[in-house]
């Protein structure tokens, strides 16, 4: 792998931006070069795409304001512990 190559950990960090087509040309090329030779990341990308597609089919339900606040507080607490 060249010094400009991408490893699997970097790919995982970039996969959402890749799926959303939000990467600059250079980074997108690095991701695609990595995907060309990494079957594990190809499978991971496929799983992410299938998950997004399935979630898009789910009916939208509204959380109560209290449930929303509780979830946001839990995630904020989790993030601050990282």
Q: What would a concise description of this structure say?
A:
The protein has 82 residues and is an all-alpha fold.
SSE arrangement:
Elements: H1 8-19, H2 25-37, H3 39-57, H4 65-81
> Would you identify the regions where 5 or more consecutive residues have pLDDT less than 50?
none
Number of strands: 0
Level of helix content? over 70%
Q: How would you characterize the largest beta sheet?
A: none
CATH class placement: Mainly Alpha
CATH architecture descriptor:
Orthogonal Bundle
Distance between the termini: 30 Å
H/E element sequence: HHHH
Q: What's the number of helices?
A: 4
Strand content: under 5%
Characterize the overall form: elongated
CATH topology (level 3) name: Arc Repressor Mutant, subunit A
Structural class of the helices, strands and pairings?
mainly alpha
Q: Mind explaining what this structure looks like?
A:
With 82 residues, this protein is an all-alpha fold. The protein contains four helices and no strands. The radius of gyration is 17 Å and the shape is elongated. It starts with 7 loop residues before the first helix and ends with a helix.
Defining key terms:
82 residues, mainly alpha, 0% strand, single chain, Arc Repressor Mutant, subunit A, 4 helices, elongated
């Amino acid at each position: 792998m060249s010094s400009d190559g991408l490893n699997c950990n970097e790919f995982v960090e970039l996969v959402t931006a890749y799926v959303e087509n939000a990467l600059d040309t250079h980074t997108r090329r690095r991701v695609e070069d990595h995907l060309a030779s990494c079957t594990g990341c190809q499978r991971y990308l496929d799983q992410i795409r299938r998950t997004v597609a399935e979630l898009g089919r789910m009916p939208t339900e509204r959380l109560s304001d209290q449930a929303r606040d509780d979830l946001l507080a839990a995630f904020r607490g989790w993030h601050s512990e990282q």
